[in-house]
Design brief:
heterodimer; A: 112 residues; 0% helix; B: 4-stranded antiparallel beta sheet
Amino acid sequence: GENVEQHPSTLSVQEGDSAVIKCTYSDSASNYFPWYKQELGKRPQLIIDIRSNVGEKKDQRIAVTLNKTAKHFSLHITETQPEDSAVYFCALEDFGGFKTIFGAGTRLFVKA
Amino acid sequence: NAGVTQTPKFQVLKTGQSMTLQCAQDMNHEYMSWYRQDPGMGLRLIHYSVGAGITDQGEVPNGYNVSRSTTEDFPLRLLSAAPSQTSVYFCASQSIGELFFGEGSRLTVL
């Protein structure tokens, strides 16, 4: 089945620095790549997504890039703030659109 | 709208007991799914449904049953609980790719 590898598992940055999380996948037929943020004790929530016909998408301080040839996509957070501290999950939707498969997650710590 | 509602929020079971985790959504989404979340392993898909009367297995279906008699409800059944099923369970409904999660159900099997 489809597999998503996410790195790093833990990331610690100073407030104001940038954070980058990378995911790789194996199924070249995947077309939808969302990112979810999960704060401590809360449910995961979508923060940004990208479809395969787009190479980059930006929403204020967060951006996602997609390289379909290399089968990897990345989340970029600029000017990090303490409230960015959370677990971030990359995911992809399988070709049929019925399954969303998640990476193992990255725990981001932003130090004030 | 309440979105996706899960009950119970917490449950402790003994090995071999059965129980049902309830999930309901009021967004009229056809697609619903169940995930379990374990430390270091992300969210793993247990079962999913693309509409009333249609269910299929995800990545880790063993030990769980589901049914979908209405668009709104998608219960998850544990027939004989095992300690390996100790986890946080999330129900989700989906619209145009985006998953809307419930608040989660923390299950402990002793």
